[in-house]
Amino acid sequence: MTLDLTISRLGLQGDGIADTADGPVYVPFTLPGEEVRAEPRKAGRAVPIEVVKASPSRAEPPCPHFGSCGGCELQHADPVLYGEFKRSIVVEALRRQGIETEVSPLVPCAPETRRRLAITAFRAGTKLLLGFFEAHSDRIVPIGPCPVAEPAIVAALPALEKLSAILLDRKKPLKLLVTRTETGLDVFASDAGKLPDDKRQQAIAHALKSDFARLTVDGEIFAMRRPPIVTFGGLRVTLPPGGFLQAVESAEEAMAELVTTHLTKAKRVADLFSGSGTFALRLAKKAKVHAVEAEAPALAALDKAWREAEGLKPVTTERRDLFRRPIITKDLKPYDGLVFDPPRAGAEGVAAELAKSNVKRVAAVSCNPQTLARDLKLLLDGGYRLVSVTPIDQFLWSHHVEAVALLEKGG
Ligand SMILES: C[S@@+](CC[C@H](N)C(=O)[O-])C[C@H]1O[C@@H](n2cnc3c(N)ncnc32)[C@H](O)[C@@H]1O
C-alpha cells in the first residue's frame, strides 16, 4: 500500500509532516509544499518512495550516504529554507513559553568543519564496519568521504578502522570519540572490554605509528605522543580524555564572541557548567571568573590552562553538581556577569535562583531550544529583559540547533 501525501510543514526533527484526516504523518527527507508517494510505517511515519512534485527549495544532497546514514537529516533543503527552519525551532520554542522576541538569523556552519565525530565499529560476519547509526534503526552505515567532518578526521578513517579491528570486542560494538586537536587526533575508545596483553601492545603500537596525539581506551591512556591541545581564545588547554568540547570551532567562536561582548564590562563573572573553560578563559582576559562544573578533570584542565597563561585575571574553580545543588541567589551577590551552558536538560534550578538575583548581565548558552525557553521564562518572570537571541548552527544538516540568549536586569 502507498499513500499520496502533501507535506505542509517540517517537524522538530526535520521530517516533513503531512496533515491528514487520520492525524499527522511524518515523512523524512521531504519539504513543505511537496507532493510525495510514501509507504506507511508504524506510529504515523511513512517512507518516501517518490517525490511527485518537488519544492523549489529542494537541493541536491552532497553526500551519497544521505538518507541512510543517521548523521544528517536536511541535506535536501537549500540554505535559505534550512536556515529558516533552524531559526524557527528557536522561535517556536520561545513562543510556546509565551516569549515573543526578535530571533536573529542562523549563524551558519560550513561543511568539513566538524572537529569531533562519534563513530561506532562492529563486526558483521568477517567484515568490520565503521560508521554512523542509520536513521531510526540500529544498523550501522559505513562512513566514507563525510562532507560534515574535517578532512583530517576523514583521512584517518583507515587508521581508525585498523584500531577498531584490534580493540573490538566480539559481543559489543566499539565506540570511538575522535577529536581533531591542534596537536593531532585525540582518540577516545570505549566498550573495548577486557584486552589481552598482546592486543594492548598492538593498539599502542598502532596509535604511535598512526601519530595519534593520544589514545585512551575505556578510561586508560594507552599512548600519548603529544598532549592533545585545544585553544580557547588563543589560550592553550589540554583536553581531558572524553571531555566536552564544542564540536565545531567556528560555532564555539560565534558563541564565545556573543558571550564575551555581552559581559565585557563585568568585573566578576560566574561561569556555570564551565567544562574546561571555553568561556571562563576568554572572560578571564577582563574579569575575575568563578567556574563551576561537575567533572573534576575538566576543572583541572581549566585550572592548569589558567596557571600556564599570562596576563589573566584570577580564575577559581568549584566542582559541583548544579542539578542537585544549584548556586543559590545569596551566593550570586558578588557577580555582575554570569554565563550558563548546561547539557540538554537545561538549568531550571539555576535559572530559578538566578531569576531572584541582581546579576546585571547574563548569557544563556544552550543546545536545546525547548529547555532554554523554559529557563528564559523563569528569568523573564524574575525581571530580566532579553537583549538578543541568536541561533547557531553546529551540527550541520541535522535538526540540532544551539542558541545564545543575552539578558539584562536593572538600569
Ligand atoms: C554543554 S557542556 C558546556 C561546557 C562548556 N561551557 C563549553 O562550552 O565547552 C555542559 C557542561 O555541563 C557539565 N555538567 C553536566 N551535568 C552537570 C551538573 N549536574 N552539574 C554541573 N555541571 C554539569 C558537563 O560536564 C559539561 O562540561
UniProtKB/TrEMBL annotation:
A Pfam family found in this protein is: tRNA_U5-meth_tr
Q: Does the keyword Transcription apply?
A: no
The protein's organism comes out as Fulvimarina manganoxydans
Which keywords fit this entry according to its UniProt record? 4Fe-4S, Iron, Iron-sulfur, Metal-binding, Methyltransferase, S-adenosyl-L-methionine, Transferase
The active site of this protein is located at 367
Q: Carries keyword Transferase?
A: yes
Domain of life, per the record? Bacteria
- InterPro entries reported for this sequence: MeTrfase_TrmA_AS, NA-bd_OB-fold, SAM-dependent_MTases_sf, U5_MeTrfase_fam
Q: Which GO terms describe its molecular function?
A: 4 iron, 4 sulfur cluster binding; rRNA (uridine-C5-)-methyltransferase activity
Q: Which family does it belong to?
A: Belongs to the class I-like SAM-binding methyltransferase superfamily. RNA M5U methyltransferase family.
Q: Which residues bind S-adenosyl-L-methionine?
A: 246, 273, 293, 341
- Protein's UniProt name: 23S rRNA m(5)U-1939 methyltransferase
Q: Example GO biological process term?
A: rRNA base methylation
